[in-house]
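Fold this sequence, please.
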Amino acid sequence: MRWRHAWLIFMSYIFYGWTNPWFVLLIMFTTTVNYVCGLMIAGRWNPIGKIDVPPGGNPASPTQRKMAVAISAVASLGLLGLFKYFGFVQRNVNMILGGLGGGTFDIMEFMLPTGISFYTFQAMSYTIDVYRGDAKIADSPLDFACYVSLFPQLIAGPIVRYRDLADQLVERSHTVSKFATGIMFFILGFAKKLLLANPMGEVADAAFGAGSLIWYDAWAGVLAYAFQIYFDFSGYSDMAIGLGLMLGFQFRKNFDSPYRADSMTDFWRRWHISLSSWLRDYLYIPLGGNRRGTRRTYINLFIVMLLGGFWHGAKWTFVIWGGIHGLLLASERMIGKDSIYRALPRPARVMITFAIVLVTWVFFRAVDFASAIQYLGAMFGLRRPAAGASLLGALIYSRDHLLILAVCAIAVWFGKQSWEIAQKISPAKVVIMIGLFILALAAMFTQSFNPFLYFQF
């Protein structure tokens, strides 16, 4: 098993450092710090001395254990803050200084290392879980390094907890059935990305890049973006789960038909499940969750979603997006389960929830706050479109885009999930998967538009 882990680590580092080899040093630093902190928490290394404990007890002192968690948080979040948020802080300080009539300074920008948000959260969750007693200490540095650097889900999730992979790192099976299921997952995710997300991205970019929009074009544009981000991210999650299965690892589901949610609370149980559960377990619950009164519960929900939005990117639009979701979650909790809204038929609740999600996606997609307000104004008919605005319809409502838009809608609200499709393999499915893969492969070599949304997060 050890040689397999060493090989996986080596290949993962090559994969991760492909764009910039220096980034490998960052993931090695995060891995080393959190592994050492885990040793300190478990009492395997006691730099400030052992304490007297009964046989089988933890020889690490409470002070050492807390110090190790603090070191892990400061080192991991400090690195994330430096590369992801330092420029954001500088720009805002410059704005304040300029507003006060003072001098500004040159902004130092850093290239964002690929996947740093994901592996930072993964490494920290290990240290926190060991401290809480929810995960056992890694058997070896190779096991932990393999966990942090595992390339299938390294750059865009899902966020994997060490406790979910601990046993698989020690022993896992490699079967033909598991490998075949992995191939199906990969093809489904690959097809989602190339055949659905990319064409919808063309429509979304055209709409959000237009200076003026007719109201129905604006709604079509944000609808296309909703499909783009869902099929892009869920497609990558499927590919990651598929690659993991091919390597013998089983990752948890990251999406559960989120656009079928009938409330914002339900939406966050279904969207990016690994992130929402991470925020719940490592932020919401430590803040007090719902244990410290109603008002504190609302505040905690708002803070968690605010920080969740900020995790996505160093822009105020992400913070606003997270804050709106926090307010919506708090509002739903406030009105309770016996509200008039809950009495509506489920299809109506799903439609209302999806409409709200569309409005919030505007802040997530817009380049800045002013652009978001301008776009929302177009959606609700508050801005008169300029002459020639109707020309955008030639792109948005082309035959191909309308066909793909319809396919997306059917898949989102009526289709089966990848987890359902990949469970059983039949000759008919094999033929369909081969055809789907060939079609997606052809699209990859012919499409000039091929963004990867969650790469930037």
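Residues 176-456 form one domain. The mean pLDDT is 87.
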